[in-house]
Amino acid sequence: MFKHNKAVWGWALYDWGNSAFATTVMAGFFPIFFKQYWSSGADVNMSTAQLGLANSVASLLVALMAPVLGAIADRGSYKKRFMTLFAYLGVLMTACLFLVEQGNWLMAVLVYTLGTIGFSGANVFYDSLLPSLSNEETVDSVSSLGYAMGYLGGGILFLLNVVMTLNPSWFGLADAAEAVRWSFLTVALWWGCFTLLTLFWVPEPQLARDHVRGNSIAEGLAQLRRTFKEMRHLKTLMLFLFAYWFYMDGVDTIVRMAVDYGMSIGFASTDLITALLLVQFVGFPAALIFGRLGEKWGVKRSIFLAIGIYM
Asked: Is CATH 1.10.8.590 the right assignment for the domain spanning 6-204+219-310?
């Protein structure tokens, strides 16, 4: 785990930072706060539908933008620039959640949707940096390091935020609602600061000599068209993309909606938060273990094992 260079650690620290949004905001406090604070008095099923719609819209917009922006980034050496743009959109919107007044569910949904677009969009370009930081022998260990750091970093801040909401007076706060609002600000600060380390420590991938020509936008769009044409003849790639879409987006939906669903069927919010907190600290060693499994046992077998355990 400690043999990696500074650039790899800089890459992994972005996951340490942005996972605070995934845990404290997306999976933890936002669903609860949305129901009890921004949608107080509204029908339970309606608030669940509104949250689900917000997640769906954000995912759809990122899915439409990512191929175009990704192709342009490849041609123009803009990966870090696009990552910065999306990451700090997410940071800004997370901070803005602090300002949304009680009962204003529509503004909460809008700000959350923009924050999720920032989070998901930045991840597209964050992941695209991995090939420049690893090779065929190290890609599994580097990738698992990022996931592990994400679980640990997100879990540490989430633990602090949970303590803040359970004991707001310790932090000079009036009540749990104020503590949750301040938790959103801590996420923005955490995410924004660790993103800076990534930007400073991770170099922009160098373009191949034959890629440095013409207008990067036009070249990127042309490359995107060629990619879609070629995909029709690559059945293995198409199968992989569809499989990844089904299993990974299924997991992503559970992560984003589990607390809301749990509250809708009667689970106490404190029990759900405790379970989510436990997951973070189980996920840290599990990510490292599966990284080693991928190296020793094969990536495909490791994925099947993980899906089997999950189900």
From this structure: no
